[in-house]
Amino acid sequence: MLSELGHLPMDFLLLAAAVTLASFGFIAGRLRAEQFSFSGDIHPNSRPNAHGYFVLMWSLVPVVLIGLGYVLFGEGASRAILRSELPEGFSILTPGELTTYLDTVARAARMPDFLSGERVFDTVTERYGEIRGTVNMVTLLAACALSVAGMFVARRCLSPGFRARQHVESGIEWFLFLCAAVAIATTVGIVASLVFESLRFFSEVPVWDFVLGTRWNAQTNAEFGALPLFFGTFMISFFAMMIAAPVGLYAAIYLSEYASSQVRAIIKPVLEVLAGIPTVVYGFFALLVIAPAVRSVALWINQMLIAWGLADGAVLAAQPTSALAAGIVMGIMVIPFVSSLSDDVIRAVPQSLRDGAYAMGATKSEAVRQVIVPAALPGIIAALLLAVSRAIGETMIVVMAAGQRAQISTDPTSDLTTITVQIVALLTGESEFDSPKTLSAFALGLVLFIVTLLFNLVAINVVKRFREKYE
Amino acid sequence: MSDPSTSPMANAPFANERVLKRLRRRRAADRRFKWYGRMAIGFALAALTLLLGSIATQAVSAATYHVVTFDLSFDKNTFGDVQPDSPPPVDRVYGLVRDDLLAEFPETASSPALRHDLLGLVTRLAVLPVAKDLVRKPAEIGTKRRVELPLSDDLDLFLKGAAARHLTVPVGRVKAEEIAGNVTLTSEATFARLIAAASLENMQPPEMPGTGSILMTAGRSTIRLDSLAPSRVTGTLLTGTAQDFRTYPARARLIPAPESERTVSDLQIAWLLALKADGRVLRVPHWSLLTHTDSTQPELAGALAAIIGSLLTLLVTASLAIPVGILASIYLEEFAPRNRITGLIEVNINNLAAVPSIVFGLLGAAVFLGAFGLPRSAPVVGGLVLALLILPVVIIASRAALKAVPQSIRDAALAIGASRMQTVFHHVMPLAAPGMLTGAILGMARALGETAPLLLIGMVAFVAEVPRGPTDEATALPVLIYSWATQAERAWEPMTGAVILILLAFLIAMNGVVVFLRRKFERRW
């Protein structure tokens, strides 16, 4: 009986309970309030609906809190109870093995009438089903009881002079604050998970071996020297910026200083299309067009060098996937990040500076180069920093076009790997959460987060200063 | 600005040759500078064109594909036991297909290797939809039905001229003699054109080993050339009879790649051409790309499961990110006291908007999968992660929309006795709603294209079933693009291009709605 309760569709039941109880609460509050408005010589403070919402609020909050608690901790609590009841024999399992075992048990318990034929396993599974059932039962009962209690207490408060609207509004304001706090919770979640898992990783692998080691071989759980990954990330971002910085800057200057407003109205949205294309599409483009092109150019250069007697063998690696190909495509992708923000800051430079330059006899390009760009420089630097940060954190292009080999090579046509490529390689595919292999992905993620955060913080502050200077 | 040379003062300083030269240099520099700008924009536009063009080219070739028609009779003896709930009788239906092909090409009967090659034309799983149909409609048992089965991807590419590149040269009427499978063709009109074409393709004479093949087809018969001279060629009969060469005009196909370096053999091409001559190979629109789920065979694969997976994921994302984002922006813009905590939230949101998406994937893997034990590969987890990812986008856009509503509206509402809450929800929010909606849609478009976080929470699994709910295993469109793009077989490339076009169509539609909303509702105060 209890284990059947374990199969209840709890999400729907909780949702249904919340909706039903909340509507009851609303009706109860409103009916009570209508008595005031018709019966009294006192004019009620709030309209009947406000009273209704007040009771609704107090009957809804307990269900929502308990439901959230159930979603977040229900499974964990059931497992903790089961774990405490397991017989002595299970202590030979390592914590990792025990978790995997419990995963299997939980999966089996979710299937109705599951029997593996193995006696211990089936007993544990049945017991787990019973625990789940009990937890579900307790949750539902507690939610309903507390909700009804809240409804009654709230209804008690109602009176003609009761400031129901003010209470409801402060409740809503709290709810709005909670919504805004989700952003904080996300950051806290990111930092906590990255730091926590990284600490576990660094308890097994020394920090300096990770940061300065030159051999990366995480798939076999052996070597965790991340320097080649940092190097690959740097090289590819460098190639990307070699394209995005000049193209983006000149495009921004042309659009803001030279182009007519009609041309601008067409070109600017078209450039921003580049930013709206999903990165996986860029990855496919790199794989399909750019990587083969880079390879054939590299092969041609090799041939030419040999033909002219400048080299004995192949100079360039000319791999099918190469750092240069990924860099070129990534450069195309970040052009709009550079051009858009640079365009904004160049246009924010006051007209008086331009007029001053022209009055001194400067040509347009001299005014741009010697007056406007220096004035907009902080903003331009910020745009470049944001683009670099975008390039470092970009994943799909490099996953598809940069390669997997962790090596330090200055040959742009060799395949280099990056931080993001390795994170994806380490975390796709089934693997338990406790091996250094998986944990190293979080350490890489931490590095990525810190580096991009620094770039972003500097860039955002620079832009803010710049705005303050000219506004 | 007036041109200095026209003013009366100008003549004196500009008479100097050195000054004029410098002026010319400066103006040239000015023109050059302008051209750099044009080149930069030209480069960006060219890159965009190349990107979209190369994908569209791929997609166009996947818009149609080749099918082979079969007249199958599902007789009662073989299929009598098929019930509405029995498993689809794939093997028995494929048996009919096999029998049909073997009857068509009796020369394969002697050799298992040849039979295997022949059955490579249509893979076994291709009959699955037919078998499922049979289970759904048992009334069809005992009837005859014409079915269209997709041709194997390699042969499809051959017919499209994409892989195993080849050249067709019409030859015309020839005289043919056959001695034990060796056919000799003679013609008054010489074979000189064929020889010229072969030398243009850098092909060795057919006698040389390891060279490409020249196939000569007439009617439903094909020979592979063994020798090629201006007025006389000899060849081995691959399929059909020499009689066809006497009745039908011949065409030659030059395939420069040697047979060992191709995925299609000469025999398979010969059979295919025979089926084509019978009118049994048709080029039809590739609807299965939209109606099938993923498969290991390119010709059978489709994006349906991924489209549904994406929709489910976006549903979860929208139901979380849009309300939370809009309410958060209302709090920050209308209610938040200017203190440390709200300052912190603001800095936070700006930073979150720039955190790499893969970090959100790590968060999802550690917290939602690890700590809370939610199921892997499920749209609900993907939706949660993407909701957190686009939350800053939604908040920033909604705040801009709220900021654009003039203060006078708020003042007026407050002046006639509305509470702050009533002011915001009754007066400010309706005015800001189009802007908020715009931000929400842009956020959803971002979520639709996002791949990396979904990889980390396991939505990259091979999913052959359409997910029925947000907790089922699923994959998403961009992830499908990733997994198809990284497959080795050539045939996946056009398919990937086509799926990209589907994805881009969704994105364009979303952005179209945004543009429409802006046009219709944007107002300047």
UniProtKB/TrEMBL annotation, chain B:
Domain ABC transmembrane type-1: 307-514
Subcellular location: Cell inner membrane; Cell membrane
PROSITE patterns per UniProt: ABC_TM1 (PS50928)
Membrane topology note: Multi-pass membrane protein
Domain of life: Bacteria
Listed GO CC annotations: plasma membrane
Keywords, sorted A to Z: Cell membrane, Membrane, Transmembrane, Transmembrane helix, Transport
GO-annotated biological processes: phosphate ion transmembrane transport
GO molecular function, one term: phosphate transmembrane transporter activity
Chain ranges passing through the membrane: 300-332, 352-374, 380-402, 423-445, 498-517
Entry similarity comment: Belongs to the binding-protein-dependent transport system permease family. CysTW subfamily.
Record PANTHER family: PHOSPHATE TRANSPORT SYSTEM PERMEASE PROTEIN PSTA (PTHR43470:SF5), PHOSPHATE TRANSPORT SYSTEM PERMEASE PROTEIN PSTA-RELATED (PTHR43470)
Entry protein name: Phosphate transport system permease protein PstA
